[in-house]
Amino acid sequence: MISVDKSTEHIRRSDSLLSVVIPIYQEGSHIKSSIKVIENVLIENNFVYEFILVDDGSKDNSWSELKSLAKDNEAMNIIRLSRNFGKESALCAGLEYARGDMVLVMDGDLQHPPEIIPAMVNAWLHEGYDLVDGVKHSRGKENIIYRACAKLFYYFIYKSSDINLGRASDFKLLDRKVVEAWKELPERAIFFRGMSAWVGFKRKEIEFDVAERVNGKTKWSLIRLIRLAVNAITSYTSVPLHFITLLGVVMFFGAVALGLHTLFMKLSGRASDGFTTVIILLLVIGSAIMTSLGIIGIYLTKIYKEVKARPRYLISDYIRGGDDKC
């Protein structure tokens, strides 16, 4: 049972600390300018803030750019993971190191518009919301195949787990008690959008239009998106396992019907060789068995990873802003 420690509840004040968590991967070409844009919004609105910038094992100059940012700015806290663990793990590191009364999670390419941060903070400060979701009013320029696959994925998640992620994003503002509740979730297979939806709490949605990337291309290849979808589906629903049972029932009744038909044809003297029918049946049954074993294998893999209980990430460097190590 997860309970919220009353000691984690903070008085909501205009000078409450805002932690901005940003996972970074191969974004050295623009990360300094992007952070400056975000920071200017925070300064203009007189927010008390800190940045938690997590380099997810980038192979470009991202880390050196982050060190340059942190050198003369005490608000910048930078973390370098020992290798590329994936965006979800980088978010975990950021959330676990954030000290703020409220924690803002966003991307570093400005596709999450900094202009709506004041509205999100206002919803937390004056309206009493514990979790403010940035939801997509439009998805911006996106490949039509990706768009169709995304709609299918979110539809399946909603129908199978009753969690509506149709317009969800990783652009969120979380109260400290929400962060503490999220940190108590022990699983290693992480899907941040689903986990933040699962914890509940009083929430509000604020729409935004996905902006164009300030530079570079998306790091999400088709293969990585498929892996994310499989991970999300198997993390939040057991429907694929029930599908195997349903498939078995359907094939059982089909076998009964086909058996009765074959027996009737035999007794009536109209039986044929049926070589083609046998081959088709073997292919169908074989495909069903292999598909079923594949689905079971995915769930067993997830159980195997959870049982090993390896850490979600490993940190090779952590530097607080203004540190001489910069």
Layout of strands and helices, then pairs:
Blueprint: E1 17-24, H1 31-44, E2 48-55, H2 62-71, E3 76-81, H3 87-97, E4 102-105, H4 117-125, E5 131-138, H5 144-161, E6 172-175, H6 176-183, H7 192-198, E7 203-209, H8 222-236, H9 239-267, H10 275-308, E8 315-320
Parallel strand pairs: 1-2, 1-4, 2-3, 5-7
Antiparallel strand pairs: 3-8, 4-6, 5-6
Helix pairs in contact: 5-8, 9-10
Descriptive report:
The chain is of the alpha/beta class. The chain has 2 domains: 16-236 and 311-320, Alpha-Beta Complex (Spore Coat Polysaccharide Biosynthesis Protein SpsA, Chain A), CATH 3.90.550.10; 239-308. 48% of the residues lie in helices and 16% in strands. It has helices at residues 31-44, 62-71, 87-97, 117-125, 144-161, 176-183, 192-198, 222-236, 239-267, 275-308; strands at residues 17-24, 48-55, 76-81, 102-105, 131-138, 172-175, 203-209, 315-320. Strand 1, helix 1 and strand 2 form a beta-alpha-beta unit. Helix 9 (239-267) packs antiparallel against helix 10. The radius of gyration is 25 Å and the shape is elongated. The model has no long low-confidence stretch (mean pLDDT 75).
